[in-house]
Write a structure and sequence with these properties.
Elements: E1 2-11, H1 17-33, E2 38-49, E3 54-60, H2 69-72, E4 84-95, E5 109-114, H3 120-126, E6 134-141, E7 147-153, E8 168-174, E9 179-180
Antiparallel strand pairs: 1-3, 1-4, 2-3, 2-8, 2-9, 4-6, 5-7, 5-8, 6-7
């Protein structure tokens, strides 16, 4: 069993944005993947559709990752905090998906369908007609959406975005390579 920890946000300081991306895609990912139960990460930037500008997709072994001393002693955006807006962090049940099921090649994209603010029933109904998605139910943290759909695209332009059913649909391109924690 795996869990997808998805962090979405916007960044409000264009002058500092390149440095923030260098930090988050480099030292921050490396720091987090040294923590217990964190297995992988990849970062993305929205190129089409609706939603927040950035998305980080972490795969965890267990929700207990958030309770370890290593995690609680030094997590967060540090000096970048004032520039982070519309921030959400949600934990989803990944079921039998493996961390590599979420790996997106650098020339590919990630299609994301979320239902921020919708009921579980509305989200469940809204996922119809979206073949090929990995549907993940909410499991914890902020619970912005009761359900999220992810689909790895080998061709960034192969998504068919629509605005029906109360869903927020977007395409995100990788801004970092898929990174995995070293096996113990």
């Amino acid at each position: 069993m795996s869990f997808a920890y998805i962090v979405r946000c916007n960044f409000n300081d264009p002058a500092r944005e390149p440095a923030w991306n260098d930090w988050y895609s480099g030292p921050k990912i490396a720091q987090m993947l040294r923590k217990p139960l964190f297995r992988s990460c990849q970062r993305f930037r929205r190129v089409a559709g609706q939603g927040r500008g950035y998305l980080a997709l972490w795969v965890l072994e267990s929700p207990e990752a958030f309770k370890t001393r290593e995690y609680t002693s030094d997590w967060g955006f540090f000096e970048w905090q004032p520039c982070i807006t519309d921030w959400s962090r949600d934990l989803f049940d990944g079921g039998n998906a493996t961390e590599t099921d979420f790996a997106v090649p650098m020339q590919g994209a990630l299609e994301v369908v979320s239902f921020d603010g919708a009921s579980a029933e509305a989200a469940s109904a809204g996922r119809d007609g979206k073949p090929g998605m990995i549907w993940l139910p909410i499991a914890g943290l902020d619970r912005h959406t009761p359900l999220i759909g992810l689909r790895v695209l080998n061709e960034p332009n192969s998504a068919a975005l629509s605005a029906d059913g109360g869903a927020q649909e977007a395409v995100y391109r990788p801004i970092s390579a898929f990174a995995q924690a070293e096996k113990p």
